[in-house]
Amino acid sequence: MHRDRPSNRAISLHVAGLVAVTAIAVWQAPNGNWDWPLIGVLLAFGLVSEFTAVRVKSGLMISGSFLALVLAMAFLYGSPAALIGAATICAVWLRERNPLRFFLQNLLTFTTFPLAGGIAFHEIQNAVGLTPSDAGFYALVFGVFVGALILNLTLIATTDVLMDAEGESFWRTMRSATPVLSSELAAAMMAIGVAYTYNEVGLVGIPLVGVVLITVQHLLGQMLLSQERAEELQKRTKQLVSFQVGMLSALMKTLDLRDEMTARHSASVARYARAIAKQAGMSQSEQELVHIVGLVHDIGKFILPDHILKANVPLSDDDWNLIKMHPQQGADVVSSLEGYGPVAKIVLAHHERIDGKGYPRGLKGDQIPEMSRIISVADTYDVMTARDSYKEPVSSFEAIQELQRVAGAQLDERFVRIFVEEVLEGKDLTFRHGEDADFDVELALEERIATVEEQSGRFLVGGARVG
Question: Among 351, 377, 391, 406, which one is most buried in terms of CB atoms within 10 A?
């Protein structure tokens, strides 16, 4: 059911509830403290606070008017407090012209919990014999604040269900208000402070405190707005990460349709590279970075025609010149993605050699990024041991001998030693040969697109309405 079109049944229930609350308020009116100057000040405080209220994502409106109603419950009791609540909601409706759903919901809520809280406060105070000079009086203010807040939120959640608000459930609405509950301890302490100020200073103390509270409300509102903007940025960032990782995955899988070994090879290189980085003492973030590079290091092979990708005959010089372009092409693709600059730099140099005879720039020794040297070791081993389009695989033992032979010239001697002595030794053959490597498993798409926990807005000057 659309929020702006509540059912006739829901409207009837709300009207019936308002009639019942009005009847109880009239019945309890003689027990109220009809101090009109105080009523006027609290109503003015509530209106100003409502007109500067803060809207949170859940649809709740957070304002300091709740403090005015708590003071009314404590010093005026049920019926006057309900009158202030009703007058506040009517004034807000006249100003904002909210849909009927919200007006009925707020009017019923802002008359019910002040009436119930005021009656409860009056009965307990009389039964115990408390006065504003007693510490127990302020403990009762705290208790009524908490009880009224819970009743306030419960009424909103209940009427949401009655209004069939887009299928919302009671517990879903209550969960959306949980951040408000978690921060209301400070607001309850404020209520005690305002009550004490009124008792000591008199009526003039409420406007002074009100100015302070509304200023705090404004500042916290700006903080809440900043937090919501940060959450929106975080959401957009997550979407961007999802898009980028998904696009890289799609590119690799598309390439795999042309050359079925590419995705498997990339997964194997990623796995080996992470293992080398771990044994080399690199941090978790560095291990993750080299793993990502392993997944995309050959993405530049898109430029290669099928006769090179699927060649089963020796390649010509022109073919090799084209192959030597794929690190640059891969780096160009990856660098076009926001935040992937470090990945692109490593991809660009993964075919450089320690002796300077590599490509595309002829870097040598420490000029080559450390992670590119790791990728080179992993890449060389997997090309030798796994089934490939242009050469038969060799055994793991033969591949290790070749790695050791070219260490110090083609490959980084330190990373060859780590790979042979610390990664391959004692590992099972499937890991050694990489034939079981799966691109989707290594990509771990769901883990990379981590769900960012939403942080709910928090506000310290309580009360809630919908709007």
Answer: 377
- Kindly calculate the radius of gyration of the chain based on its CA atoms and give it in whole angstroms: 35
> Which is it for the CA torsion 48, 51, 54, 57, positive or negative?
positive
Q: Which backbone phi and psi does 438 adopt, to 5 degrees?
A: -125, 125
Instruction: Write down the pLDDT at residue 388.
Output: 57
pLDDT > 70: percent of the chain: 66
Q: How far apart are CA 153 and CA 145, in angstroms?
A: 12
Q: At what angle do helices 78-96 and 8-28 cross, to 10 degrees?
A: 140
pTM, two decimal places: 0.50
CA nearest neighbour of 302 among 248, 264, 341, 353? 248
146 vs 260: which has the higher pLDDT: 146
DSSP 354-407: TTS--SSS---GGGS-HHHHHHHHHHHHHHHHS--SSS----HHHHHHHHHHHB
* Residue 466 β-bridge partners: 60
Given phi > 0 = left and psi -120 to 50 = alpha, else beta, which region is 463? left
Cβ-contact 113, 148 below 8 angstroms: yes
Order the strands of the 60-62 sheet from edge to edge: 54-55, 60-62, 464-466
CA–CA separation, 314 vs 165, rounded Å? 70
224, pLDDT greater than 60: no
Which residue type sits at 211? V
Q: How would you class 133 by CB atoms within 10 Å of its CB: exposed for 0-12, middle for 13-18, buried for 19 or more? A: exposed
Q: Which residue has the higher pLDDT, 125 or 215?
A: 125
Task: Return mean pLDDT, the chain.
Answer: 76
- Cβ distance 463 to 50 under 8 Å? no
Instruction: Report the alpha-carbon distance of residue 60 to residue 179 in Å, rounded.
Output: 11
- For CA atoms 391, 394, 399, 402, the dihedral sign is negative
Cβ within 8 Å of residue 445, ≥6 positions away: 245, 246, 249
DSSP state of 52: T
Q: Which one-letter DSSP state was computed for residue 411? A: B
Q: Regarding predicted confidence, which is higher, 340 or 116?
A: 116
pLDDT of residue 1: 35
217-255: buried (b, 16+ CB within 10 Å) or exposed (e) per residue? Answer: beebbeebeeebeebeeeeeeeeebeebbeebbebbeeb
For residues 16 and 445, give the distance between their C-alpha atoms in angstroms, rounded to a whole number.
53
Calculate the alpha carbon distances from 189 to 143, 211, 465 in Å: 11, 17, 21
Provide the terminal-to-terminal Cα distance of the chain, rounded to the nearest Å.
17
d(CA 359, CA 289): 22
Which neighbouring-strand residues pair with 464? 62
Handedness of CA 304, 309, 310, 316 (dihedral sign): positive
